[in-house]
Specification:
With 72 residues, this protein is mainly alpha-helical. The protein has a domain of 49 residues. Helices cover 64% and strands 6% of the residues. It is built from 5 helices and 2 strands, in the order αβαααβα. It has a two-stranded antiparallel ribbon with strand order 1-2. The radius of gyration is 15 Å and the shape is globular.
């Protein structure tokens, strides 16, 4: 029962966030996320969304930064 309330709360929180153009997020990556715009561009590589929340962008950045680099 507690999980249901947490899931509903998460859905409500997520739906209240503002959507931003990815170009604007990239332009202000340093101020918003503390990373260079190039990092956010790399995190967005292959993502078809043109608008997303700051939370979604931050999650993509964290995933991108923790990916294992393949060596040759």
């Amino acid at each position: 029962m507690a999980k249901d309330k947490q899931q509903k709360k998460a859905v409500h929180t997520e739906s209240r966030e503002t959507l931003f153009d990815t170009a604007d997020l990239i332009k202000h990556a340093k101020e918003l996320f503390g990373v260079k715009p190039d990092i956010l561009q790399g995190a967005l590589f292959g993502v078809d969304q043109t608008r997303m929340t700051k939370s979604e962008a931050n999650q993509l950045i964290q995933t991108f930064l923790t990916k294992e680099v393949m060596s040759s």
